[in-house]
């Protein structure tokens, strides 16, 4: 079932612009994060406090139909706000190019986390430097079709 509610765009201009371009072109334009050549997906989640819909572009890390959302925030000392959204409301909508589906979210740990972390770093090596910049363990969220 698709998420319902009021969409409130990000306060960050680059996020707003990225999401708008991606959705307007079904992922054909602006299909990468600024300054990279790596593909992205857009994830819609329910705000943990507001209950409003939030949309975030994240690096496309996919295996066998499951997607990984890496809560790196560029190696900042705190998690991105969407990590709390996932924890409180573990149902999201993911758009990969023109395809949109609902996914269940779970936070990874242990060997499963290590396996997906390896894929994340193989997909975009900058994740490793983000981990080096922060004392927190970067959360990994697995998104599986609902």
Write the SSE topology.
Blueprint: H1 13-24, E1 40-46, E2 53-59, E3 61-63, E4 66-70, H2 81-88, E5 91-96, E6 99-107, H3 110-123, H4 126-133, E7 140-145
Quick overview of this protein structure:
The chain has helices at residues 13-24, 81-88, 110-123, 126-133; strands at 40-46, 53-59, 61-63, 66-70, 91-96, 99-107, 140-145.
Strand order of the largest sheet: 2-1-5-6-7-4-3
Question: What's the helix-strand series?
Answer: HEEEEHEEHHE
DSSP strand content = 25-35%
Say what the CATH topology is.
Pnp Oxidase, Chain A
Distance between the termini: 9 Å
User: What's the CATH class label?
Assistant: Mainly Beta
Please state the second-level CATH architecture: Roll
Strand elements, count:
7
Shape: globular
Key attributes of the depicted protein:
29% strand, globular, 146 residues, Split_barrel_FMN-bd, 29% helix, 7 strands, alpha+beta, F420H2_quin_Rdtase, Nitroreductase family deazaflavin-dependent oxidoreductase, Pnp Oxidase, Chain A
């Amino acid at each position: 079932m698709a998420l319902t509610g009021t969409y409130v765009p990000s306060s960050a201009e680059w996020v707003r612009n990225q999401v708008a371009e991606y959705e307007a072109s079904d992922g054909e334009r602006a299909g990468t994060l600024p300054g990279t050549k790596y593909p992205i997906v857009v994830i819609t989640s329910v705000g943990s406090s507001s209950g409003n819909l939030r949309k975030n572009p994240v690096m496309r890390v996919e295996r066998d139909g499951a997607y990984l959302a890496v809560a790196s925030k560029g190696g900042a000392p705190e998690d991105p706000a969407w990590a709390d959204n996932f924890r409180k409301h573990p149902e999201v909508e993911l758009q990969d190019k023109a395809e949109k589906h609902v996914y269940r979210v779970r936070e990874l740990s242990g060997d499963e986390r290590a396996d997906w972390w390896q894929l994340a770093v193989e997909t975009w090596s900058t994740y490793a430097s983000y981990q080096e910049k922060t004392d927190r363990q970067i959360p990994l969220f697995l998104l599986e079709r609902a």
